[in-house]
Amino acid sequence: MTSKESQSAKFIDLHGHHSSSKSEDRDFLYIYSYSPKINDLPEEGQFFSAGVHPWEIEDARTSFEEVKRLCGDSNCLMVGEAGLDRSIVDDSDLRQQEEVFKWHIQLANELKKPLIIHNVKCLSEIFRLHKQFPNHSNWVLHDFNGSLSDIQECQKRSIAMSLGPRFYESQTARIAHTISDHKIDLNLIFFETDERGDINIQTIYEKFAQKQEIEIDDLKDRIWQNLKALLGTNLTS
Fold it and tell me: What residue numbers bound the domain in which 130 lies?
């Protein structure tokens, strides 16, 4: 990374559902995640993603039409979140979630924008669909909670992972043990606040840097490079 690129690197909050004054701070880049029936529309000029959340797929076609319109906006950086959640349905209802998720895969492909994914206990299904749709856009698993082998499998498949505060707040989460017990390859890694408006994304960076014994500036620069690769562009102000 050149010195000029390093100076432009920001703390990236890849996925959040809350309003954030930091979105206009020159040291931070915040991507607001909009989901119909869950939260408010993005503000004018705000970077965002848009998708039908698997928790709210009743009348999904109407919601998806709104998502399609929003995803055509130049400030929409990603499609989603959309995905699969086995914790709230049985396997028969999971098929409905999968149908809606496929709409988002196809939309992301058409727009050539990354797809940010909600996944709860469905990683094998995500991998199956990743293989089923060749030449698709980049994928990101948000609030990733997996083992070292899960991380390595995602990296092998070029699926990015966004880590939230659970890796340092929860003593029982798999990702907490993964981060504490292993050195993590930073390829395809991001960070997010998700619904936690009480947490600054810089804090999450600092906690990860401490646990992984990385200089915070080096971590910041590397994640910025990951974002450039994910989006295919450099978001500088």
Answer: 3-231
